[in-house]
Amino acid sequence: MRVVAAMSGGVDSAVAAARVLDAGHEVVGVHLALSRSAATLRDSARGCCTIEDAGDARRVADRLGIPFYVWDLAERFERDVVDDFVAEYAAGRTPNPCLRCNESIKFAALLDRAVALGFDAVATGHYAQVVDGPDGRELHRAVDPAKDQSYVLGVLDAEQLARSFFPLGDTTKDGVRAEAAERGFAVARKPDSHDICFIPDGDTRGFLARRLGERPGELVDAVSGEVVGEHAGAHGFTVGQRRGLGIERSRLDGDPRYVVEVDAPANRVLVGTADLLGVDVVAGEHLRWCGPAPAGEVSVGAQLRAHGTEVPATARVAGEGVEVRLAERVRGVAPGQSVVLYDGSRVVGSATITGTGRAA
């Protein structure tokens, strides 16, 4: 097969490309330029797509003896991921940009271009497994639970899975680094990227303030309706947040306060005690199935955050939406996040959360 290996410049994508080559495929390395003004050097473990990263990817490709190209997808990344991120926060929701990137960039724009150029598949350094099942290829969790990335791949459909390779799904992170060192890759000890790649300083509130400006509003007690403080913009808050609320100590009774709702139209942030955060009913839309859509009510595992714990649940699909009932209450679930459904280790599909509640 002819395979495009997406090479970020990190250790994971380097070993993934090498493994696909070892498997006998014809491999071309591709680095995605996703920033319109990429930094020259990486100055922390945050962020990605610097010129340094592109150079690291090229050196790995040279060592493997494979062709290497840089594809400029900065304009589409800005539109589909960054602008979407800002718009979601402005609407009072909390998006996961990694899922949007996988859906719109790595397994749409990249895969579509690769297929148009005559390639058969795309390989990435994600920690997940694709196995052949009775109804086609299935997406499963990685063997290393600490690195499992099946949650952020839950937006892939069956057709995309049929053209995807995740060569690292059967290996631990330590094993990947050891293999990279054995292969002589200079990136063997390179730190992992984390947080949001287009906010390299990690200051999400500051990033949103620069994009959306200040929009002063009220902090309101969710039970009494009393105004307990002010904020510079509802877009700077997310459900479950505790730090940075700016509530005067004289307004508190000793119990910590959390954001329990972001009312974007009214530019209000509702706060309350921890007991108001727990929900066990989740509604979702923008359904994506990694195989056949479930029929009727099915028992599943539900994961609500990239590094969250799977919770036993039932799911019922109704038209364009899904209702997920959790076996236990979970705190800090925000509209805009994704719920990914599992059957054992297999990813069933995902949905974008539109609302939460409590069962009667």
UniProtKB/TrEMBL annotation:
Belongs to the MnmA/TRMU family. CDD domains: MnmA_TRMU-like. Residues 206-272 form the tRNA-specific 2-thiouridylase MnmA-like central domain. Residues 147-149 are annotated as: Interaction with tRNA. Residues 283-353 form the tRNA-specific 2-thiouridylase MnmA-like C-terminal domain. One of its GO terms (molecular function) is tRNA-uridine 2-sulfurtransferase activity. Catalyzes the 2-thiolation of uridine at the wobble position (U34) of tRNA, leading to the formation of s(2)U34. ATP binds at A6, M7, S8, G9, G10, V11, D12, S13, L32, G125. It comes from the Bacteria. It comes from Phycicoccus sonneratiae. It catalyses: S-sulfanyl-L-cysteinyl-[protein] + uridine(34) in tRNA + AH2 + ATP = 2-thiouridine(34) in tRNA + L-cysteinyl-[protein] + A + AMP + diphosphate + H(+). It holds the Pfam family tRNA_Me_trans_C. Keywords: ATP-binding, Cytoplasm, Disulfide bond, Nucleotide-binding, RNA-binding, Transferase, tRNA processing, tRNA-binding. This is tRNA-specific 2-thiouridylase MnmA. The active site is at C101, C197. Transmembrane segments: none annotated. The keyword Manganese does not apply. Gene3D superfamilies: Adenine nucleotide alpha hydrolases-like domains (2.30.30.280), HUPs (3.40.50.620), Translation factors (2.40.30.10). InterPro entries: MnmA-like, MnmA-like_C, MnmA-like_central, MnmA-like_central_sf, Rossmann-like_a/b/a_fold. SUPFAM superfamilies: Adenine nucleotide alpha hydrolases-like (SSF52402). Its EC number is 2.8.1.13.
